[in-house]
Specification:
The protein is of the alpha+beta class. Helices cover 42% and strands 12% of the residues.
Length: 788
């Protein structure tokens, strides 16, 4: 690993955001914080030999004693489970030990007192590097079309020349999926033996990753995606009789890319008009499909197609090592040799692209009389945007003037500037804090960067840059309006979408496979449709104008197409596109009962209350669960053929070392036993009526009981515990820092804001970023530099 301490001085960040750890310590100093005589003595006598004197872990239990149980829950757990395999601690002793543990090192506040959260100096994440380089290198243009998706423009021609003189008509096609047979596209103006079509517009990439575009056609076709120099698929000449053509391209999620597809039907090798007319017309068809990340082959849908056409976007193809997620969210907390090598490769890739496309990217013509001065000006803008700050004379001299003086030509000079900029800590590391004596223009640029990385994971756009350069961004009202503008941009939805998929633990998806005997018809295409169904549901509930947490948890509707409807029993034609439907009335509620989730957290041929319960406990309710002491395999149904899934799980988790966590997990997972391994409603399991009752004891000690998944969904929708967990996880995803590092009141204040907005998820996005800016203005933290 590379030590990043030297980079701190490069940034000039002598001080940063403050933390109120001392205040927290004072607030709890009188709450048994390690001074409890009886509890402390009992802990040292009975617990410390295994757990360590400060709960740090010992020979009998290596993990730290931290968690989210209340004092009463801890006392109950200690009396029932501790020590394992021996005479248990008495209830009276447990009542004394639990408060000591809770206030000394177990509770979140105790953890914060003992190990105060700090805003750590972090590098850009892989997502942020890719987005930032794309915005730096690409021609200035809208990241997403201003119009809603509606399909793509198709121009229909007689002949094969694709010029305006032979155009018969122009229309919007929602998809490119046509089987013309022996007929032309329309009755009038076409020769069924000879016609052509050109489709052009934008295609939106929902996810980051490799996209395999596929064309099914027996005619001459070409496809360009994100550039016009070379077609991604060239089917003008074929060496075989295959009607399937493929091409793969790497795209950044949340961005629209120019697309052009041409189709020409003609009698190859026949030039004489009489011969053409004598020959009967043959059949023709064309379909444009793709395989996007985590999906199966499908027609490129209309909700990803636009009639608007933008400039191409530069996309890095360099592969990076994954970012750390050990704390539950993605962060750039270390610099490895592999990461440094990837950054170098990415810088070389970007510099080579700019050098090869100098005139187009810089806007400076090759024969411009003052070309050198204009290219220097381009480099100044590049450096300012990359570094997110005013370019000082010293930086300009080192990064620009010196390179132009030593390079053999202007192209080499620009290439050197780009390489130095993209390898500089000023580009690769985030801004941390603003000093009280910081110059106004520097503070304005820091605010712009906090807004753009918080909401978009990328650099400030032109509007933010302009407001920063003029000082307008120092005004509170201007900052608020910018945060609201940016949170309505599709780039904010993409970042929110990434969070929701991570929150639901479906961002990294294995193949969904079910036992063909028990679930005939469940194949890769159906699994892909289920994924699409979930994504559409999330967009409709979390990104709509309402976008409420309540709607996310309680909406009875889901998206289905004809294939899903047939499998899940909805009344839709087999060819029906995705649309909102309500099935299994009185059984389903919100994201909790989405078939994709229920299928994902299940086995090949059986449901899994444990996997479903863990998801609810950790992610929906924000409770901490320790990993199981040893790997285990579920009891096979054949070992106990008379038992239901619920009974087998209860039997397997009965031992003392399991019961501590599973007393929390199982009752929540059991509420979803009404749904089988494919997410379909069932009334019985192994010939017995399904028991989907359950319960949950909240951190405040109150017990909630449920008769069904709907009861549980209603509880989560109104639970302050669930609201707080959602806010904290979203904060971490957006800011890449712990919320407590911005002050003890950060989460309580955001929870209040969330409640006042009617639990609007969209309104929460700008509030989170604005909260970090407010904390920066009122505190004076020190930066915690990541360790080697």
């Amino acid at each position: 690993m590379i030590n990043i301490r030297p980079y701190v001085s490069i940034f000039g960040f002598a001080t940063s955001l403050a933390f109120l750890g001392a205040t927290i310590a004072l607030a709890i100093s009188g709450q048994n914080g390690g001074k409890s005589s009886e509890g402390e003595a009992l802990f040292k006598q009975k617990c410390a030999p295994c757990h360590g004197r400060k709960g740090e872990g010992g020979p009998g239990y290596s993990r730290r004693l931290v968690g989210t149980r209340s004092i009463s829950e801890l006392a109950k757990f200690i009396s029932q489970q501790m020590p394992p395999g021996k005479v248990k601690c008495t209830a009276a002793d447990s009542q004394k030990i639990a408060p000591f543990i809770f206030n000394s090192f177990y509770s979140p506040i105790a953890q914060e007192r003992n190990r105060p959260a700090r805003i750590s100096l972090q590098r850009l994440t892989v997502t942020q590097v890719r987005n930032a380089v794309a915005d730096l290198v690409s021609l200035p243009h809208a990241i997403n079309p201003s119009e809603p998706p509606s399909g793509i423009y198709g121009e229909y021609f007689t002949g094969r020349n694709l010029d305006s003189k032979s155009r018969v008509f122009k229309r919007i096609d929602q998809e490119v999926n046509f089987d013309f047979g022996i007929q032309p596209p329309a009755k009038d103006g076409f020769d069924p033996r000879l016609f052509s079509i050109a489709w052009q517009g934008d295609v939106l990439a929902p996810d980051t990753g490799e996209y395999e575009f596929v064309i099914h056609s027996d005619q001459s076709v070409q496809l360009w995606v994100n550039g016009w120099k070379q077609p991604l698929i060239d089917g003008t000449v074929r060496s075989n009789n295959s009607n399937e053509l493929k091409g793969t391209i790497y795209l950044l999620g949340g961005r629209a890319y120019p697309l052009r597809l041409t189709f020409i039907k003609a009698s190859q090798g026949v030039d004489d008009t009489a011969q053409k007319k004598a020959k009967p017309p043959g059949k023709s068809s064309i379909s444009l499909l793709w395989i996007r990340p985590n999906h199966a082959l499908e027609t490129v849908p209309s909700n990803c197609l636009y009639t608007q056409t933008d400039y191409p976007t530069f996309v890095l193809t360099t592969r990076f090592p994954p970012d750390d997620r050990s704390t539950g969210y993605e962060r750039g907390n270390s610099v490895s040799r592999e990461w440094d090598e990837a950054v170098t490769s990415a810088a070389l890739e970007a510099a080579s692209y700019i050098a090869s496309n100098m005139a187009a990217v810089s806007g400076v013509a090759d024969n411009a009389p003052n070309r050198k001065a204009l290219l220097k000006d381009y480099c100044r803008k590049f450096i300012r945007k990359a570094f997110r700050r005013v370019v000082s004379p010293e930086v300009e001299q080192s990064y620009i003037e010196k390179q132009f003086s030593v390079a053999k030509n202007e192209e080499t000079a620009v290439k050197r500037v780009v390489l130095m900029a993209l390898k500089s800590p000023r580009f690769l590391f985030r801004e941390i804090g603003r000093e009280t004596d910081q110059r106004p223009e520097e503070k304005a640029y820091a605010i712009a960067s906090q807004l753009s990385f918080g909401l978009w994971d990328s650099l400030p756009d032109q509007e933010l840059e302009h407001l920063a350069s003029t000082g307008e961004l120092l005004k509170t009202d201007v900052v608020r309006l910018q945060a609201e503008r940016m949170s309505a941009d599709p780039r904010s939805w993409i970042k929110l979408r990434q969070f929701l998929l991570h929150w639901l633990k479906v961002d990294e998806v294995p193949d969904l496979v079910k036992d063909a005997k028990h679930y005939p018809g469940f194949d890769s295409s159906l699994a892909s449709d289920l994924r699409t169904s979930l994504e559409l549901f999330l967009q409709n509930t979390a990104w709509s104008n309402k976008s409420s947490f309540e709607d996310l948890m309680l909406s009875p509707s889901m998206y289905m197409n004809g294939r899903l409807a047939k499998f899940y029993g909805a009344s839709l034609p087999e060819s029906a596109p995705f649309q909102l439907v309500e099935i299994d009335r009185g059984k389903r509620a919100g994201v909790l009962t989405q078939p994709y989730l229920l299928t994902r957290f299940a086995y090949l041929d059986a449901s899994s209350p444990i996997h479903r319960g863990v998801l609810i406990v950790r992610n929906y309710l924000g409770r901490i669960l320790q990993p199981p002491p040893a790997a285990f395999a579920p009891l096979a149904a054949s070992l106990h053929p008379e038992l239901t899934t619920r009974q087998r799980v209860a039997l397997q988790t009965r031992p003392d070392f399991c019961a501590g966590c599973h007393s929390l997990i199982n009752p929540l997972g059991f509420t979803l036993e009404e749904f089988d391994a494919a997410g379909r409603v069932r009334a019985s399991d192994n010939g017995r009526p399904v028991d989907c009752s359950g319960n949950y004891r909240a951190a405040n000690g109150k017990l909630a009981e449920f008769r069904s998944a709907i009861d549980l969904a209603k509880y989560i929708a109104t639970s302050e515990e669930a609201h707080s967990a959602f806010v904290e996880k979203l904060f971490q995803h957006m800011i890449k820092q712990p919320a407590l590092a911005y002050g003890a009141n950060t989460l309580p204040d955001l929870n209040s804001t969330f409640k006042e907005s009617g639990y609007s998820i969209r309104k929460l996005l700008p509030k989170i970023v604005l909260r970090t800016l407010a904390a920066a203005d009122s505190t004076n933290n020190k930066v915690q530099v990541p360790k080697r």
